[in-house]
Amino acid sequence: MNLVDLRKIKPLIFNKEELVSKYGNGFFENIINGEDGIIYRKYKKYGNDFLRKINGEFAYLYHDKTEKYIFATRDWIGEMPLHYAISGGSIYFANFIHDLLKNLPDLKYEEIVAVNRSEVVEINSETGQVRKHLYYNFNKEKNEIAYDKLEDVAKKVHDFLFKATKDRLIKKIKKTALLLSGGIDSMSIAYIVSTLCKNVTAYTIEVASQQSTDLVRAYQITKTFGINHKIINVSEKEILNCVEEAVKDSEIYHMYNVFCAVGMHKLANVLKDDGIKYVFTGEGGNEAFGDYHDWIVVDPETKKELVLQRTSKDFNEPAGREAYIWGNLLAEAQGRYNIQLGSGLGKHGGSRMYKPMFKNGVYLLSPYFEKLIMKIIANIPFEILEKIGGKPGFMKMVFADEINSGKIPEELFEVKKIRFQDASDGGEGGITGTLLSHGYNQKKLIKIFNNIFRANIKPLPHLKETILIK
Questions:
Q1: Is residue 329 left, alpha or beta, with left meaning phi > 0 and alpha meaning psi from -120 to 50?
Q2: Fewer CB in a 10 Å sphere around the end CB: N or C, the chain?
């Protein structure tokens, strides 16, 4: 069986010093592409522990022709995509599903498989037999944090966020960029980046020159932190004209993901034109806190409330938040997961956020995706979060010193969660309102997806999202 490598994205590693110290001075340079088999050989020597040590965005692949095994693996949460398909005596790997379909005209979407987050896939190159296992299990990793002293927990998160942001700073680049929506997550990263870098530009999307809630907040944040602010104004026509391209870029069909991907598609093109290759985001914070609520907007026609999605009560519990972040192993064992796209944020955030950026040569840098940060926040007991006022209350504790010293106004934390695509409460003036008013519902988006990807997805209503199987 031949190996056909269609990957286009090079790995990005954040813990260079640690790897050099443990594995030798020449190690880091080789780890960038891994084509000489060093990743595979180190894995064979040190086992799963070696892969757990790599902190970054990666999707590695190697063909051991002596042992007749093809080895593939992916980062812990699935930031970098990796898919494969077996066809005509060959196995094809690609970062993008579209590349597999383009190179294999007879391939069906349902025949494509994702290398899941934290997964090792070993394929016998003679028989085609596939073996899989997890090198890391986020759900089973022990959380040693005691939440009786919440101020201490908040201080840990503060320090971990600063370190994670600093680790992701790319040396030798002249411009540091970040995506700024106006919410707490992106605001917190904007502040940290502003303390570490001098030349920082924040990018915010605006639809049809409407002063949305998110845009007003973003103005205030950039002014407070002394950050350059670039507003990407897109017309309703531009939004409508790029829906199919956004579906193609994101390779996903869920309405809440596609609406977000439309914005990412527009932002990615601007970042590329501006010569930006790396951009910070606050992605991951909402999932860790379980800060998603029923998706209720204003119907553009009736002006009444319209429920687009009901979120699961499992978000209230640590197990539910962990499942949304990383996946539900019980469901996977029963075959109840997306085989083509994978699990957890690797499926959702990886598609709606990362893929549109990767296709334009842009890397997203998400400090909240650090394992320790996600583990600590996701496991804050619901009763404690509720008592302190949810995410805003905890994040005030995280940045208590900055609030007390006047570096961050407390009012920047006193905001209600607004989905990126909505831009304002009710979705008016954002991507959501624009697309809904022109008939883009779940059924229509799935039809577009099926046409692009030779798929046969059924247009089921996505009103309830069940995270855990009781």
A1: alpha
A2: C
